[in-house]
C-alpha cells in the first residue's frame, strides 16, 4: 500500500492479521421430550474481534426482522415445520469487541424423510472445493478463520451412536471433530482454523484430498 503522506514515495507491506484476530463460537441445542416433537432449538452465536466488526456491519445494514427471516429460511431447509420464537436477540459489547446473537425456534416435525441432518454450516462454507482444481497459481483461502461449532441433541431417546474424533491438518488449515454420547445426550464438536491466506501450487493436490 502507498501511504498518502508527505515524504512517502514507496509502497509498504501491510502485515497479515494474526490467526486469533477474529473468532466465531456457535452453540446449537436441540431438546425435547421425544423426537416426535415439539423440539426446541436454541442457537447462540458469539462473534469476537474482526468477526464482531463484520457482523456489526451486517446488523447495521439489515433489520432484525430481515436477519430473522434469513436464519429461519436456513433452518427451514432441514426442518420445514420450524417456527421462530421471537426475533433474534443481540448483545453488543464494544469494549471487548464481542457480539452474541441468540435465536430460539420450535420444531413440530423433527424428522424429514425419517432423518435429520446436523450441519456446521459456517465451517462447511469454508471448506468447499474450488471450481478450478488444476491451477498454476496459489489457491486463495479466507484468513484468518477460527470457528468452533457445538451441537447438542437431547430428545429423551437413546441412539446407538459410537464416539469418534479426529483431525485433518496441513500448513494452512486444521479441522478437528469430536462426537460423544452421554446417556441420551449427543454432543458434536467441530473446529476449523486457518493459518495462511493461500495454498502453494505444489501443495494444492494434497490440500484438496
Summarize the structure in words.
There is one protein chain. By secondary structure, this protein is α+β, with helices and mostly antiparallel strands. The chain is built from 4 helices and 11 strands. It has helices spanning 50-61, 64-76, 121-126, 204-207; strands at 22-31, 39-49, 82-84, 89-93, 98-107, 139-140, 146-154, 164-169, 173-182, 185-194, 198-199. The strands form 2 sheets. Strands 1, 2, 3, 4, 5, 7, 8, 9 and 10 form a 9-stranded mixed beta sheet that branches. A hairpin with a 7-residue loop joins strand 1 (22-31) and strand 2 (39-49). The longest helix is centred in the middle third of the chain and has 13 residues, at 64-76. The chain starts with 21 loop residues before the first strand and ends with a helix.
What's this model, at a glance?
By secondary structure, this protein is of the alpha+beta class. The chain contains 4 helices and 11 strands.
Task: Give keywords.
209 residues, alpha+beta, nine-stranded mixed β-sheet, two-stranded antiparallel sheet, 4 helices, 11 strands
Q: Note the main sheet.
A: 9 strands, mixed
- Share of residues in helices: 10-25%
* Shape descriptor: globular
Question: What gyration radius follows from the Cα positions, in whole Å?
Answer: 20 Å
**Secondary structure category:** alpha+beta
Note the gap between the termini. 35 Å
Averaged pLDDT: 91
H/E order of the elements? EEHHEEEHEEEEEEH
Number of strands: 11
Number of DSSP helical runs:
4
Share of residues in strands = 35-45%
Spans of at least 5 consecutive residues whose pLDDT stays below 50 are: none
